[in-house]
Write a structure and sequence with these properties.
With about 200 residues, the chain is mainly alpha-helical. Helix content is about 75%, strand content about 0%.
Length: about 200
């Protein structure tokens, strides 16, 4: 019955296997049999542990989002903890943030599938994913910007909006690249950010 515990190694294999299947096939098309085959477990193991595919998916997206957010927050803390030269330091942040990370590739492939299939996913699951992943990362960026604004480095009223702008003007600009050099895009994005939020001369 649901709630029977499986060994930690089998649990890890199940979560990792399900991540690969959902990243490849999407939530709606991922079958219990495909999830079990990929993880090397029986379908009974999945039903015993989670009860249904939706509960397994919730566990997978929360597990993956938490790990990726932890990884991204490490970058945020390293790059934004100390800002001396706003332009140079924010460019360095943008370059680090936009750099592809092979360790997170499967996660973001899954997120692309989730975004395409969001009408068929429980809104509670989507909210839990955002809270465990993107919201935590944005909050970490916002906290650094707030601290630097309080010290006079930036002019920021709403640090959450400023964090969204910083991401949009750097990493997301590169992701939407139209054939322009990524370094040039990031530098232009940082100039735009500082034009809006830079401290008055």
């Amino acid at each position: 019955m649901k709630g029977v515990l499986v060994r930690a190694d089998k649990q890890r294999a199940l979560l990792d296997g399900a991540l690969r299947v959902v990243a490849r096939d999407g939530f709606s098309r991922a079958s219990i049999s495909a999830l079990a085959t990929e993880a090397g477990v029986s379908t009974r193991t999945i039903y015993n542990q989670y009860g249904n595919k939706g509960a397994l998916f919730r566990a997978v997206i929360l597990d993956s989002s938490t790990a990726v957010a932890d990884r991204q927050i490490t970058v945020v803390d390293r790059m934004l903890d100390r800002i001396v030269e706003p332009f140079d330091d924010l460019v360095a942040f943008g370059e680090a943030w936009a750099k592809p990370d092979p360790e997170t590739a499967l996660h973001f492939a899954m997120i692309r599938q989730v975004n395409a299939d969001s009408d068929h996913i429980d809104p509670e699951v989507l909210g839990a994913w955002r809270a465990a992943g993107p919201d935590r990362v944005r909050a970490a960026i916002a906290a650094h910007l707030r601290r630097h604004a309080d010290s006079g480095l930036f002019r920021i009223e709403n640090e959450r909006i400023a964090a969204l702008h910083l991401i949009a003007l750097t990493a997301r600009t590169v992701q939407a690249d139209a054939g322009i050099d990524s370094g040039e895009l990031i530098r232009a994005g940082v100039r735009a950010f500082l034009a809006a939020y830079g401290a008055a001369e």
